[in-house]
Amino acid sequence: MTPLLPALLDPPDRTALRFRTREGDDTELSYAGLASAAGALAAQLAGRQRVAVLATPSIHTAVGVTAALLAGVTAVPLNPKLGERELGHVVGDSAPEAVLAAPGVTLPGPLAALPRLDVDLAAEGTVPTGEPAPDATAFVIYTSGTTGPPKGAVLTRSAVASNVDALAEAWEWTDADLLVHALPLFHVHGLILGVVGPLRRGGRLHHIGALDPRALAAAAPTLVFGVPTQYHRLADALEDDPESAAAIGRARLLVSGSAALTAVDHARLHRLTGLAVRERYGLTETLILTAQRASDEPEPGTVGRPLRDTEVRLTPLPGDDGEGLGAVEVRGPGLFTGYLNRPDATAAAHTADGWFATGDIGKWSASGALALVGRSATDLIKSGGYKIGAGEIENALLEHPGVAEAAVVGVPDPDLGERIVAHVVAVGEAPEEKELVDHVATLLAPHKRPREVRFTDALPRNDMGKVQKSRLPRG
């Protein structure tokens, strides 16, 4: 049986993990040191079924998760910023038998009652022999809970392994790569792709805390992972730092995910660094579904083609008006086995013939890449008899020099059914509303223009930089 983390069985002579601390110092472990520390902790975890990991952005989180994987114990990574009610729900639902944490970190209320195991970076142990079954659960990762209490997506070891391997094929990811990112460690992006990924490849990870241009340039990455908010701010900073821009441009790949990167930021980053950003698409329940290949010419506005062994279909929407939009449904080896303790929600998330319904709306580009236009619940606007994707309008708005950020929603309207309302963060002094409406109408069909523009200082976002449209006023 192929090990999930083969490099830890015969540790190569190189750094495995390096993390920037809050004080600005770096803490690192070689592969041999990681095998020793994680092996020692794995011995303490033996016999348990499930453990919580207080997923601070630290090397201790990476070691704790590695130990759980070595021990064959399910890891439940927890956002350290969860509110007490939400944290109480997750702990009660997942019923962890212990919590792993960095020494000295105060455990929030619901975790304080659990047996605590501190992650000791200097501990000495050996990697357990034997590999758990491929269908054993590796992670239970909780969704954001935008439509109710968070649900725990159950992800197996084989799902994680197959997904990382398919991405490695798409991105030509090898043990020679140094991945640098500054992502949270309680989501698929930062944890499974960003920690398990490099360790499975036998490469190196440097977590720099924030995607600061000088820190990123000094790290000399070959791979960079980020979310659009990070890349937008990076582009801003690089405008006045050509030296860092040139150094970052020596990377092999910049990869963006978790939300759409705007065409404007695509162009800015390419101009500043000489690199074209690759995008990919996935969900907690599915891991990564599509990705732009390292060998492909990037196509802004799309998230690439399906990964090896992953199937994606677009189911036509009722009353399709010829736009080519469809509900994105998927199946493949990277999908979750269900929501923990929620067979009802698991069944509701699948079609009658067994495909997972992502809740996203998409269309195929001429090249065969998937383009996403938004979420069916919040981003498919039905106005004047048309079905309109909010993402297309947002991208058009962002091409205006006076727009820094944009979020488009449908608001109930007695005449149109829904009218298009754009919430906009301006660059400097806000442009005239009519100027933005006319700008969109010039780029897109007239029925896609906003009927109203509302200016705001900031858009509500979650920890991964995704705009939370449910928090935007609809009245």
Automatic annotation (TrEMBL):
GO molecular function: medium-chain fatty acid-CoA ligase activity
Ranges where the AMP-binding enzyme C-terminal domain occurs: 392-466
SUPFAM superfamilies to which the protein is assigned, alphabetical: Acetyl-CoA synthetase-like
Domain AMP-dependent synthetase/ligase per the UniProt entry, residue ranges: 11-340
InterPro entries for the chain: AMP-bd_C (IPR025110), AMP-bd_C_sf (IPR045851), AMP-binding_CS (IPR020845), AMP-dep_synth/lig_dom (IPR000873), ANL_N_sf (IPR042099)
Any one biological process term the GO annotation gives: fatty acid metabolic process
Family per record: Belongs to the ATP-dependent AMP-binding enzyme family.
Protein name, as recorded: Malonyl-CoA/methylmalonyl-CoA synthetase
Originating species: Pseudonocardia kunmingensis
